[in-house]
């Protein structure tokens, strides 16, 4: 019963596929905590330049580990602003979890995407209401939805003034 109420609330916060006012406030607070390194290692703040505004935008993300690599998944799908911004920035972003890490996000199109999505739902409980598949579902169910959720591998980028600009 409580899980259903939480799921309904999370869906309401992101109705229309966009974060509503309360979700934006909550995301700012989580991003501050994650950037400070206070929360779990699998959580961080992702910073990316806005493709239109040029402003640095920071928000919380859950990092999924799979076969020795780290991944980000867009829980709201293809039209998520951070996805559009990261693509416009050629994947150049910053992860903050107690320290700054210049990274490059490389979009994943391999057959591993279904397994990465499943792993993401295991480590990101807040994302579960946005997926039509249970985190314990067989891989075949995840294969049916991989096209709806962009997946990015996190690679280390050399620190440079260009990544901070």
SSE layout and pairing:
Elements: H1 2-13, H2 21-36, E1 43-49, E2 56-62, E3 64-66, E4 69-73, H3 81-88, E5 92-96, E6 100-107, H4 113-123, H5 139-143, E7 151-156, H6 161-164
Antiparallel strand pairs: 1-2, 1-5, 3-4, 4-7, 5-6, 6-7
Commentary on this structure:
This protein has 165 residues and is α+β, with helices and mostly antiparallel strands. It is 34% helix and 25% strand. The protein has helices at residues 2-13, 21-36, 81-88, 113-123, 139-143, 161-164; strands at residues 43-49, 56-62, 64-66, 69-73, 92-96, 100-107, 151-156. Strand 1 (43-49) and strand 2 form a beta hairpin.
Q: Any idea what the shape is? A: globular
Instruction: Give the count of helical stretches.
Output: 6
Characterize the quaternary organization of these chains. single chain
Outline the low-pLDDT stretches.
Answer: 161-165
The strand count comes to 7
Strand content: 15-25%
How would a crystallographer describe the biggest sheet? 7 strands, antiparallel
Instruction: Name the strands of the widest sheet in spatial order.
Output: 2-1-5-6-7-4-3
Radius of gyration: 15 Å
**Average of the residue pLDDT scores:** 84
Q: Order of SSEs, N→C?
A: HHEEEEHEEHHEH
Give me the secondary-structure category: alpha+beta
List keywords for this structure.
165 residues; alpha+beta; 6 helices; disordered C terminus
Short description:
The chain has helices spanning 2-13, 21-36, 81-88, 113-123, 139-143, 161-164, and strands spanning 43-49, 56-62, 64-66, 69-73, 92-96, 100-107, 151-156.
């Amino acid at each position: 019963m409580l899980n259903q109420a939480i799921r309904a609330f999370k869906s309401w916060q992101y109705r229309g596929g966009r974060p509503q006012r309360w979700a934006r406030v909550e995301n700012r607070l989580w991003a501050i905590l994650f950037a400070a390194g206070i929360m779990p290692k699998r959580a961080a703040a992702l910073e990316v330049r806005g493709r239109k505004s040029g402003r640095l935008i920071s928000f919380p993300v859950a990092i999924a580990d799979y076969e020795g690599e780290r991944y980000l998944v867009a829980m709201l799908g293809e039209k998520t602003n951070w996805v559009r911004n990261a693509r416009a920035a050629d994947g150049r972003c910053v992860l903050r979890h107690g320290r700054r890490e210049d990274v490059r996000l490389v979009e994943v199109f391999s057959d591993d995407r279904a397994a990465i999505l499943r792993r993401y739902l295991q480590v990101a409980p807040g994302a579960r209401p946005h997926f039509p598949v249970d985190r314990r579902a067989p891989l075949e169910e995840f294969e049916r939805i991989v096209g709806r959720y962009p997946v990015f591998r996190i690679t280390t980028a050399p620190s440079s003034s260009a990544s901070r600009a």
